[in-house]
């Protein structure tokens, strides 16, 4: 698509969306709603969202079905936020990726790289590694021996994949992530001192997975720590040895899984939640922020609190906690009446 496409051209690329207003209005950039002006493309979740942003009308706005804001041009969408993300890919140029193998990179002679693989400055590719077509390693990426990396992956600066880690196709791994470090395993010896348990298993990551910055996924003690297809893992997440994350699951920042924890498909684990070792979280369950999960969770459950309880029970508890001062006051008044100290 040419630079500065029209609202009509963007609407066509999004699936022939309806355009209200002036369809030939040109768009130069994607922009947040607040402060938007001529040439900007924005989206509005609700009329309130638009009003809180100052009610701009000079920009092109993606709006929900049944919503009209009087902008110069409006693209009607069943999901304005999703369509805005897709339109932004049209408007925002992709970053320039490295190409070829940088002179400062160290690639072991036994490594097998597809012809179009890019390896950035000071990166290291160990013995017997295998890297698929279209994959990019940015600067200072380290692949230990025996890593298997699929096609069209992107590993950002500072990523480390330890010995034997396997990653599928189209993975995105952000800076500072470490996959395959030793799991945290120790036993007390005869003298009561901690003796390290060898971690000799592996890590397997499926296709279309994204792993955030400074996230750590430990190798299994035995067997495999497994991340399913299409999982999305935020920054600063800890996944311990022998964990299994089911396909299409989402884990938000600072959540942690202890060794052997497993999830089904489509699970959402929100920020700072913790899942105890060897616990199973069923399909489509939601673990609320800061929840502490100590027991298995059934499919579809919504768990909150520490220790985590079902959402309905948690909400009742919160409402009762809000009433505690009032209830305490009533209890003390009742005690005074019973003891005859109420002055009556």
Explain what you see:
It is a single chain. The chain has about 350 residues and is of the alpha/beta class. It has 4 helices and 37 strands. The strands form 6 sheets. An 11-stranded mixed β-sheet has the order 8-11-14-17-22-25-28-31-34-36-37. A 10-stranded parallel β-sheet has the order 6-9-12-15-18-23-26-29-32-35, with no helix packed on it. Helix 2 links the parallel strand 3 (about 40-45) and strand 4 (about 60-65). The chain is flat, with a radius of gyration of 27 Å. The model has no long low-confidence stretch (mean pLDDT about 95).
CATH class of the domain at 7-91: Alpha Beta
Described by strand count, sense and barrel closure, the largest sheet is: 11 strands, mixed
Which structural class is indicated by helix and strand composition? alpha/beta
Tell me what the CATH architecture of the domain at 7-91 is: 3-Layer(aba) Sandwich
Report strand %.
25-35%
Globular, elongated, flat, extended or rod-shaped: what is the shape? flat
Mean pLDDT: 94
Rg value: 27 Å
Number of helices: 4
State the fourth-level CATH superfamily of the domain at 7-91.
MurE/MurF, N-terminal domain
Roughly how many Å apart are the termini?
85 Å
Q: What name does the CATH topology of the domain at 7-91 carry?
A: Udp-n-acetylmuramoylalanyl-d-glutamate--2,6- Diaminopimelate Ligase, Chain: A, domain 1
What percent of the residues sit in helical stretches (DSSP H or I)? 10-25%
pLDDT < 50 runs, ≥5 residues: none
For the largest beta sheet, what order do the strands appear in spatially?
Answer: 8-11-14-17-22-25-28-31-34-36-37
């Amino acid at each position: 698509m040419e630079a500065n496409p029209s609202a009509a051209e963007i609407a066509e690329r999004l699936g022939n969306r309806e355009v209200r207003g002036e369809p030939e209005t040109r768009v130069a950039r994607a922009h947040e709603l607040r402060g938007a002006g001529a040439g900007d493309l924005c989206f509005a979740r609700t009329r309130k969202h638009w009003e809180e942003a100052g009610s701009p009308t000079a920009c092109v706005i993606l709006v929900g079905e049944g919503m009209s804001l009087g902008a110069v041009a409006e693209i009607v969408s069943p999901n304005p936020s999703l369509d805005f993300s897709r339109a932004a890919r049209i408007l925002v140029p992709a970053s320039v990726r490295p190409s070829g193998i940088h002179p400062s990179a160290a690639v072991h002679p036994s490594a097998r790289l597809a012809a179009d693989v890019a390896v950035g400055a000071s990166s290291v590719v160990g013995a017997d590694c295998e890297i698929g077509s279209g994959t990019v390693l940015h600067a200072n990426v380290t692949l230990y021996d025996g890593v298997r990396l699929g096609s069209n992956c992107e590993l950002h600066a500072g990523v480390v994949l330890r010995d034997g880690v396997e990653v599928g196709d189209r993975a995105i791994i952000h800076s500072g992530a470490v996959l395959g470090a030793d799991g945290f395993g120790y036993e007390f010896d005869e003298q009561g001192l901690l003796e390290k348990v060898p971690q000799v298993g592996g890590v397997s990551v499926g296709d279309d997975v994204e792993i955030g910055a400074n996230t750590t996924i430990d190798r299994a003690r035995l067997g495999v720590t497994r991340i399913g297809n299409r999982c999305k893992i935020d920054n600063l997440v800890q996944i311990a040895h022998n964990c299994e994350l089911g396909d299409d699951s989402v884990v938000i920042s600072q959540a942690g899984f202890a060794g052997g924890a497993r999830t089904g498909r489509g699970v959402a684990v929100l920020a700072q939640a913790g899942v105890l070792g060897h616990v199973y979280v069923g399909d489509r369950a939601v673990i609320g922020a800061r929840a502490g999960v100590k027991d298995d969770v059934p499919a579809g459950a919504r768990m909150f609190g520490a220790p985590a309880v079902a959402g309905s029970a948690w909400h009742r508890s919160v409402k009762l906690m809000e009433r505690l001062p009032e209830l305490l006051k009533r209890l003390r008044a009742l005690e005074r009446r019973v003891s005859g100290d109420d002055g009556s």
